[in-house]
């Protein structure tokens, strides 16, 4: 059974979506993320992916009050990312109720710090964010491409103890044209024990079913939900089938 993880992306405390990570493509879907989170919870969702887009752009955590509201007023397990760059950012995220924190840019730019977090908090609380653009890791809200290639990057961190990774295909994100199925299959072929969360491109229930069939452990559902292509009832059915 694939785990469904809906996403709430936050700019200025509001629930938004971007296309391919471009801030100028921002569309506000809800002024109040808590309403959205409560609706997910009411339909049996247990985990939520929260991204602080202001944080990703400004290189430090920004929307921690929204995180705190979501964590204290729902029972959802929140994995939080976006702008978590320092020990202080990480502490704030956990203090505000994040159950897990995703580190993407930090894992590229400051591997020592990321490894320190892995050792201090354990791989069950620290997720590797592997955002990929044409085979290379993208950083800083996807504005930059690094020299790191995806597969060596994953190999290296799995050796260092990473057990969970969110892999987003930047080119597909928010485009609703289907996920990078072959990419995810190849990652799992090389690392069968990795808890791989597929992200980017999911546009329909069929996309989720194809990922499930391929044995992908979890999927993030973002724009497909906000644009009405996958409903709360669909998610509930999927979880109960």
Automatic annotation (TrEMBL):
Compartment list: Cytoplasm
Q: What class of enzyme is it?
A: isomerase
InterPro entries registered for this protein in UniProt: Aldolase_TIM, His_biosynth, HisA/PriA, HisA_bact_arch, Isoase_HisA-like, RibuloseP-bd_barrel
Name the domain of life this protein comes from.
Answer: Bacteria
Pfam families associated with the record: His_biosynth
Alphabetized, the UniProt keywords read: Amino-acid biosynthesis, Cytoplasm, Histidine biosynthesis, Isomerase
Can you tell me which residues form the catalytic site?
9 (proton acceptor), 131 (proton donor)
What this protein catalyses is: 1-(5-phospho-beta-D-ribosyl)-5-[(5-phospho-beta-D-ribosylamino)methylideneamino]imidazole-4-carboxamide = 5-[(5-phospho-1-deoxy-D-ribulos-1-ylimino)methylamino]-1-(5-phospho-beta-D-ribosyl)imidazole-4-carboxamide
- Which pathway does it serve? Amino-acid biosynthesis; L-histidine biosynthesis; L-histidine from 5-phospho-alpha-D-ribose 1-diphosphate: step 4/9
What GO biological process terms does the UniProt entry carry, in alphabetical order? Answer: L-histidine biosynthetic process; L-tryptophan biosynthetic process
CDD domains for this protein: HisA
- The main location is cytoplasm
Cellular component GO terms held in the UniProt record: cytoplasm
The EC designation for this entry is 5.3.1.16
Gene3D superfamilies assigned to the protein according to its UniProt record, in alphabetical order: Aldolase class I (3.20.20.70)
The entry lists its GO molecular-function terms as: 1-(5-phosphoribosyl)-5-[(5-phosphoribosylamino)methylideneamino]imidazole-4-carboxamide isomerase activity
Among NCBIfam families, the record links this protein to: 1-(5-phosphoribosyl)-5-[(5-phosphoribosylamino)methylideneamino]imidazole-4-carboxamide isomerase
The family this protein is said to belong to: Belongs to the HisA/HisF family.
The record's annotation in PANTHER family points to:
1-(5-PHOSPHORIBOSYL)-5-[(5-PHOSPHORIBOSYLAMINO)METHYLIDENEAMINO] IMIDAZOLE-4-CARBOXAMIDE ISOMERASE
Designated name of the protein: 1-(5-phosphoribosyl)-5-[(5-phosphoribosylamino)methylideneamino] imidazole-4-carboxamide isomerase
Organism lineage: Bacteria, Pseudomonadati, Bacteroidota, Bacteroidia, Bacteroidales
């Amino acid at each position: 059974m694939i785990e469904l993880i809906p996403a709430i992306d936050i700019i200025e405390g509001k629930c938004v979506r971007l296309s391919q990570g471009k801030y100028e493509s921002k569309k506000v879907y809800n002024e109040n993320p808590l309403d959205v989170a409560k609706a997910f919870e009411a339909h049996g969702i247990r985990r939520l992916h929260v991204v602080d887009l202001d944080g990703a752009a400004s290189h430090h955590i920004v929307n921690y009050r929204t995180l705190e509201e979501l964590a204290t007023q729902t029972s959802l397990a929140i994995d939080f990312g976006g702008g978590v760059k320092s020990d202080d950012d990480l502490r704030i995220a956990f203090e505000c109720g994040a159950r897990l924190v995703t580190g993407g840019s930090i894992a590229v730019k400051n591997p020592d710090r990321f490894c320190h977090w892995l050792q201090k908090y354990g791989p069950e609380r620290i997720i590797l964010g592997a955002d990929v653009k044409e085979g290379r890791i993208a950083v800083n809200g996807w504005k930059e491409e690094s020299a790191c290639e995806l597969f060596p990057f994953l190999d290296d961190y799995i050796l260092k103890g990473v057990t969970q990774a969110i892999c987003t295909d930047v080119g597909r994100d928010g485009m609703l044209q289907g996920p990078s199925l072959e990419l995810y299959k190849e990652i799992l072929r090389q690392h069968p024990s990795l808890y791989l969360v597929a992200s980017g491109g999911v546009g329909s229930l069929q996309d989720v079913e194809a990922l499930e069939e391929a044995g992908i452990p979890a999927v993030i559902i973002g724009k497909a939900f906000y644009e009405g292509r996958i409903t709360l009832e669909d998610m509930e059915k999927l979880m109960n089938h």
